[in-house]
Amino acid sequence: MSFMSRFRLAWRTATAGDDAMPDGVRPPSRAAATDPLRISTVFRGVQVLQTAITGLPIDVYVDGVRTARQPAIIRQPDTRRSRRDVISDLVASMCLDGNAFLRVRRFGDEAVSCEVLPPHLVTVSMANDDIAAPDMRYGYNGMSYTSRDVIHLKFLNVPGSLRGLGPISAAREEVEGAAMARDYKARFYTDSSNIKGYLKSDQRMTEELAKGAKKAWKANGDALDIKVLGSNLSYVPLELKPADLQFLETQKFDTTQIARLLGIPASIMLAAVDGSNLTYSNIEQAWLEFADYTLAAYTGEIEEALTALLPAGQSVRFDWDSTRRADMSSRYAAYRTAIDAGWLTIDEVREREGYEPLKEQAHERP
Fold first, then answer.
1. What are the phi and psi torsion angles at 276 (to 5°)?
2. How far apart are CA 67 and CA 65, in angstroms?
3. Does pLDDT of 248 surpass 50?
4. Residue 55 carries which DSSP code?
5. Residue scoring higher pLDDT (32 or 84)
6. What pLDDT does residue 16 have?
7. Nearest-5° angle of CA 98, CA 100, CA 106?
8. Residue 165 forms beta bridges with which residues?
9. 217 and 357 share a domain?
10. Which residue segment(s) compose the domain that 222 sits in?
11. Total domains in the fold of the chain
């Protein structure tokens, strides 16, 4: 079973949970088992976040100096899955639930593998009564783990709370409202209870006449048959414009609201914003803000989690330069400036661009 299948199963399980459990021990229950990934905007947002973060190179530093050698636990954290899948699971967990959990498998003191647990199946509690210095316990599948065995990643820390908050879990009302609007649109054409029109008269209608007109109209149940009206009655259909039939304004509002909630620029979500004037410069600025204020919230937690798997003195960082690359001419001009200033060599530039080092004599300048 895939991680997302386990996540959906966990979501449905959590909605049937016992609300009498103490706050923080059990994940917050939902009033309805609404899978947020069934909303197209949420699906697109999670996919954008996963794609942006999994595409970042990961560097390992030893005593603050970047090294080309990566430990096996960083190259492939889960021995049964790719590193890309593990990071995708962490991003989706923090986005949808606000929490991600890595169960670490060790050989002595060395971490040899880890796996992502479905956050809705993990309970969080304390073995002591000191919220400032908690002795954490994590329950999963009938087993209890300590902080040595489980690394807890939080999207947004809330003081005094054992669990973090994510954009989707923190704004369930907005997400559920978008789901209800989508479902109403789907039922609008097939729901016989929707009023398609009404009978109108230019004369005063008594209750008896109204009931008689209604009965006569409904006497022939075939909607395609010819209707005959009397008593100065006329049929007025409720005509909707094509844009109204598609509920375009509602869809646009929900898309913008969820994009804002996820911290993703509207241009990336393929959503048009009224009054916006997209140019190369402000799109580039939106990308930089997206990296600084949205992606960094996820990558910071993932960096700390992966660093915790390494021995002391080693750390993990994402290479952000790969997401902030300018056009080729601007990038090469910046490299030339760095080489002339002496703080980058040609081989270091070639390494950044994915090329092999030059031969020794090629380093000499004419």
1. -85, 145
2. 6
3. yes
4. T
5. 84
6. 43
7. 165
8. 156
9. no
10. 197-237
11. 3
